[in-house]
Each structure stands twice: as structure tokens, then as C-alpha cells.
Design a protein that fits this description.
alpha/beta, 2 domains, three-stranded mixed sheet, about 50% helix, globular
């Protein structure tokens, strides 16, 4: 009878194995045409004077004709020299700086997209850097496949020590699930740091972005788009489109960021995302519950170990695949200690979110 609750881990195992199987069918996209699509790159930023120079330099080096893209920087009430840095950056001739007509990132993006000339929008963040073929590869993929939304890969910058390794593995696991679920046509996540979509698609769905919630401009657009049966949402597998974004320097900033992410859950209506959230939370609660019970009933250690193994196998396979695609295979040496700590981390994020409301 003590084994019966452990059966609740099976939905998680089945769902993650399905995701892993989808990852095995990913094919790297290679540019085979000379794209001509006009692109609008939108960046919403607030007090980003330290990060903007690196981003603007990355964009200035793009292997894409200047007359085929524009860069729109939307200044969201910055109090530093964000506006001055953009204004003085004359390497990019096709750059436009706008003031946010509203408040917050969602309104800033809306301001930029309303002013955009391109039929295809690429959103990114001020703390990102990308390779020279970033725009060209996305444009070619768009012209060949004609998607409504293109989900592109993201990685975080390396931070020394165990905390840094933990962040990278956790983020890569999210990227693995993002890619696998999109490949199986059941996308559950995306990242606004590297996301492309039709301007028309955004305008048609902009009323469904839950402006009452500060974050979620990307995920709510995805969820709204999925409700349209004919929507085409694709993952773009290419090292040329990989964007590197900033990582948290302290555990508290990391906790606050993840708390903001989880606080959006109350507004989710997408079935695939809700199911993933439930089965993941149940697997973590099971793991922790049996770990605690083992101190009272030592004979149940085998049940705990069985749950740990069942959960770890698909987690390991997804991370092994993703770390290989991102050329980060050495991080897998940290898998076991991260796997043991992960349930405590998730519960701490949940409790923090409940106490501080994701602030």
C-alpha cells in the first residue's frame, strides 16, 4: 500500500519522455535562400545603460542588409542614460527611439510594434547578445515555413560556482521542454528574449496579454495564439539564432525572478501548460514527502529512491540532449546535486510567491 501514492509520478514520467522523444526529431535549420523580409527588432528597456552598448553592437554586426531591418528601442521611463546611449549610437542607421506611451514592458512593446514597419517582429531584451546571422536565419526560416510565431533558443551567461551551474541547468531544462513541446505542436513556453511573430498576429491578440500582470508578454501571446486552430507555432533549431541573456547574480534576485514567473500561473488558461505545471508540482511534492517520511519509516527509502529514479531519468535525458545542442555537456556533471536540491528550490519559489505576491 505504501507504494500506491508513488504511481502519481507516472504522468510526469510519460509527459517528459514524450518531450524527450520530440527533441530527438529536431533538425538544425540551415539557410538555403537569400531572405528579403523586412524585419522590425523591438527592444523594451528601462535603465539599461550598462547593457545596451553590447546589444547594439551585436545588432550592428548583423549579416543582413541595412535596408531590410529596423531597430526600435522603446524607453520605459528610464532614469539613467538609456535614451542618450541609443541616440548617440550612430553605427546603426536604421534605429528609432520611442518613449513608452503607457507603463511597463507590455505597453512598451505595444508602443514599438504599433510603430513598426516590418511584417515580422523580433523581440529581444536589452541584456542580450547574439551572433551575426541572427536576423538572417530567422528571416529565412520565416520565408520557408511561414509560421505565425517562431520560438528561438536562449541561454544565460555563465556565473561562477554551484549557483551558476544550478541556474544554467535549470534554464536549459526549461529550454529543452520549450523546444520539445513546440516540436510536438503543444508549445507550453517561449522566451521574449528571442521570439519572432507576425505583426498582424500580435495586433490581433494584443488584448489577451493580461495587462494587469506585469510580466508574461511572451507566454500570454503564445497561449492566445494557440486558441486559434490554424496558428502555426514553430521552434527554430539553429546555433545562429541562439541568444545569450543575463543571469541572476544573487540567489535573492533569482528567487524574485522565478517568483514573478510562477505568479503568472493564476492567469493561465492553456491546457498543455496547466497539465505540465500540475504533474511537475505533484512529482516534486511526492519526492519531498517520501524523503520526510523516510526519517519516520526507514523501510520506505526504497519508495523514495524509486520516485527519484523515475523522475530523474527523463530529466537527465532532456538535459543531456539540450546540453549537447548548446555545447554545454560538461554541466551534466552537476546533474545529481542539482536534482537533489531542485524540489527544495521549487517549493521556496512557491512559498516566496505566495508570501510576496511575485514582487
Amino acid at each position: 500500500m505504501h507504494w500506491l501514492p508513488a504511481i502519481l509520478i507516472l504522468p510526469y514520467v510519460i509527459l517528459l519522455f514524450k518531450t524527450y522523444r520530440s527533441l530527438l526529431h529536431l533538425e538544425t535549420f540551415n539557410v538555403s535562400i537569400d531572405p528579403k523580409t523586412f524585419i522590425s527588432v523591438i527592444v523594451a528597456c528601462r535603465n539599461e545603460q550598462k547593457n545596451l552598448p553590447a546589444l547594439l553592437n551585436s545588432i550592428s554586426l548583423q549579416n543582413y542588409p541595412n535596408h531590410l531591418f529596423e531597430v526600435i528601442i522603446v524607453n520605459d521611463k528610464s532614469t539613467d542614460k538609456t535614451f542618450e546611449i541609443v541616440s548617440e549610437f550612430n553605427v546603426i542607421s536604421n534605429i528609432l527611439t520611442l518613449d513608452n506611451k503607457g507603463k511597463g514592458k507590455k505597453q512598451a512593446l505595444r508602443t514599438g510594434i504599433n510603430a513598426a514597419k516590418g511584417n515580422l517582429i523580433i523581440s529581444t531584451d536589452a541584456d542580450c547578445i547574439m551572433g551575426k546571422n541572427w536576423i538572417r536565419t530567422i528571416a529565412a526560416f520565416y520565408e520557408i515555413n511561414g509560421p505565425d510565431m517562431i520560438i528561438c533558443p536562449v541561454q544565460i551567461k555563465s556565473v561562477p560556482g554551484f549557483f551558476g551551474r544550478f541556474q544554467q541547468l535549470e534554464f536549459m531544462s526549461l529550454q529543452g521542454i520549450t523546444a520539445g513541446s513546440a516540436k510536438s505542436e503543444q508549445a507550453v513556453m517561449c522566451n521574449g528574449a528571442n521570439l519572432a511573430f507576425k505583426r498582424e498576429v500580435y495586433l490581433n491578440n494584443s488584448d489577451n496579454l493580461h495587462d494587469e500582470i506585469d510580466s508574461g508578454d511572451d507566454i500570454f501571446l503564445l497561449h492566445s495564439l494557440k486558441k486559434e486552430n490554424r496558428s502555426k507555432i514553430l521552434w527554430l533549431e539553429s546555433p545562429d539564432t541562439l541568444v545569450t541573456t543575463g543571469s541572476s547574480l544573487t540567489f535573492m534576485s533569482f528567487l524574485k525572478q522565478r517568483s514573478r514567473w510562477i505568479s503568472k500561473g493564476k492567469a493561465y488558461s492553456d491546457r498543455d501548460t496547466i497539465i505540465l505545471g500540475i504533474v511537475t508540482f505533484v512529482s516534486i511534492v511526492l519526492q519531498l514527502s517520501y524523503l520526510i517520511v523516510c526519517f519516520i519509516y526507514p523501510d520506505l527509502i526504497w519508495v523514495f529512491l524509486a520516485i527519484l529514479v523515475l523522475k530523474s531519468v527523463p530529466d537527465f535525458l532532456i538535459l543531456l540532449n539540450t546540453s549537447g545542442r548548446y555545447a554545454k555537456r560538461k554541466l551534466m556533471w552537476w546533474f545529481l546535486p542539482v536534482q537533489l536540491i531542485y524540489p527544495f528550490y521549487v517549493l521556496s519559489v512557491v512559498f516566496y510567491s505566495l508570501i510576496f505576491r511575485g514582487k
